[in-house]
Amino acid sequence: MSNAPKSVERPMPRASIMEIEAYVPGKSAAPKGVKLHKLSSNETPLGASPHAVAAYQAMAGQLELYPDGSSTLLREAIGKRYGLDPARIVCGAGSDEILSLLTLAYAGPGDEGIFCRHGFLVYRIALLSVGAVPVVAEEVDLTANVDAILAKVTPRTKMVFLANPNNPTGTYLPAAEVTRLVQSLPAHVLLVLDAAYAEYVTRNDYAAGIELVAQYPNVVMTRTFSKIYGLANLRIGWCYAPEAVCDALNRIRGPFNVGGASIAAGVAAMEDGAHVAAAQAHNTEWLGWLTREISNLGIGVTPSVGNFILLHFAEEAGRNAKAADAFLTQRGLILRAVAAYELPHCLRLTIGSAEANKLVVEALREFMGKSVG
Length: 373
Ligand SMILES: *Cc1c(COP(=O)(O)O)cnc(C)c1O
Hints:
The protein has helices at 50-57, 72-82, 94-106, 122-129, 146-151, 175-184, 210-215, 243-252, 260-271, 273-296, 321-330, 354-369, and strands spanning 37-38, 89-92, 112-116, 133-137, 157-163, 190-194, 219-224, 237-240, 300-302, 308-312, 333-334, 336-337, 346-350. The protein is of the alpha/beta class. A hairpin with an 8-residue loop joins strand 12 (336-337) and strand 13. The protein folds into 2 domains: 19-47 and 274-368, Aspartate Aminotransferase, domain 1 (Alpha-Beta Complex), CATH 3.90.1150; 50-271, 3-Layer(aba) Sandwich (Aspartate Aminotransferase, domain 2), CATH 3.40.640.10. It is globular, with a radius of gyration of 22 Å. Pyridoxal-5'-phosphate is lined by residues 42, 94-96, 120, 163, 167, 194, 196, 224, 226-227, 232, 237. Pyridoxal-5'-phosphate binds at residues 42, 94-96, 120, 163, 167, 194, 196, 224, 226-227, 232, 237.
């Protein structure tokens, strides 16, 4: 008898987990002595509501207490703001957690989940985590396409993920197309509408999905406090879902999955409509300005309805996305490389402060003007 451990005998993760490329967050480092402008993670340049900050600080004396495991006050605040039944809202540690829980509840080994070619990477990670098969639907003009999604539906399809608007492309599907998708999907397929950027959209043919959730038992809408509400650091997301979906999520989620300081700050942020309006106005102004200015430099810009834009660079060395990324980083301007999204010639730029936006345009002008090689 030998006590030496046999090297093959060790705990092994589910095989599909080894297919996952771990998510790489946006960079946040600049060269020494250069002012950093982090434009790589779609964070708001306006910060959190001062009321949310105060509510967060007020929790400092109660850190030993477990939070309310049902996030009751937060669900009530969300319900009041959007006219929703709080019983049909589930909160999570970011909408990332909600996406993972939905996948855990509705897909398993061998099941299929569909998302779009340049869709948000978390869907793939969530599906592989439970042993399900990620199925990619092609896009048209970097935009989700209902017919392409429907063409991928098989008897094994359990879920469809649609980021609307999508990150990192910034494109969106009009409400009529999303409705057509729901009406064409088999009733057993769960449609997850990820509306992380809904508050930024100003198009009148857009809808985040509230009406569809109210109408169809197989539609869920996920939302987040990380983007326009400026609370990414507190990890708060939520979904509005049919009763049976909420029931499933409440059975499997961690019993205290949202912290008390997050709940308190989230309530205050939800109630500060003026702060959200200011963030919307800032975004609308600078989204238009950056799109025009950068296009004028000869850089392709995908029209976006979110708080970020996708920039298309040439493929030749010296002028490509990699060179642009290095050039901007030297100036403290940190954008997001999106090769992991199969967009190797692109960079994603978050709409920043007025100062940051102007610096980006100046730097890109310099980059485009310099001679190659
Ligand atoms: C940022 C983002 C989210 C939000 O993630 P959180 O976990 O709530 O911070 C969800 N979906 C998409 C498409 C996003 O870009």
